[in-house]
From TrEMBL:
It is found in: Cell membrane. InterPro entries: ArAE_1. It comes from Amycolatopsis japonica. It holds the Pfam family ArAE_1. One of its GO terms (cellular component) is plasma membrane. The keyword Zinc-finger does not apply. Keywords: Cell membrane, Membrane, Transmembrane, Transmembrane helix. This is Conserved putative membrane protein. The keyword Cell membrane applies. It comes from the Bacteria.
Amino acid sequence: MGGKTPFAWVARAFRVPGEERRSLVQTAKATAAAVIAWIVATAVLRLPQPFLAPYAAVFLVQATVYRSLRGWAQQVGAVSVGVLLAAGAGQVIPSVTVALGLVIFVGLLIGSWRGFGDSGVWVGITGMLLISYGNATEPVLLADRLLETALGAGIGAVLNAVILPPLHGERLRAATSRLASAIADVLDKTAELVRGGETTDGLDDRMEDVRSLVAEAEDAIGWTREGRYLNLRGRGETREEPLANLVSLWHPLAQLIDAVSEAARSEQPFRHPGEHARGVVGDLLEALAEVARSGDPAELDRCRDLLGEIDHLLVTPTDEVTTSIGLGAMALPARRLVQRLHAD
């Protein structure tokens, strides 16, 4: 769970449309799918012991319609094999203990076939449940298990496609805008910190927000690619490259924040750059923030000029920066940020 505490995780889910909020929405959808599957199986179809219906519904709330439909086929296939395996073992093996061990062993082996995907484990689990519940020799109950699985999986897949379905192109654009804004805000905050006008208070929370949005952005890219399959609304024209480039900023940004925070907390003067050097770094961070927000090529050119000035400070023997470890620690990740923004 992201964040330092459960409260922070929940607060971030409501404040930032990132990984936490996506998890919260998917959890709510899976819960609703399980409850609906149970109600239909018990109140409408009046199936006895319909435990597989809510199970299947939960696992079919996936990130894309394609993934849900693929999962439906895999899960129904895996459960069908598990039912047949349990039926065969129940007919020829009189000992429940022996049948249970054999069904689990063979079922898990069969389930390891990659065609079953993540649903492969259901071959062994289904067989185990049927043997342990004593249903393996009752054809009517075996048929009920297949019906329950198909019902639950179908409800999960449909609910996932209808309730808050992934809006692939829109999600990609929104993720790009949110991540660019969050990165720019962190850079502005860091610029103030470098100049000595701010403390590190709140910077960790901002970085957690960026980390959450990076995770959401990576998912959005994957969903966009996968969501083109079976997407009746078309492929869309949204480009993935700008968002992928922003995601690539995460590691140098984290390194930069670590260097700045360490220098700000240090009581040793040689760890922190002098006032002029800090001003140059602050200007660079503000220019990087503007590039992240708007992609302004003029600001990117200014970033390169400021990097050149930092290089000059690092090799020029002045009283201010001769022993400044902090400036060198900040310069390297800042250079990587400029390079990756330039690659956009």
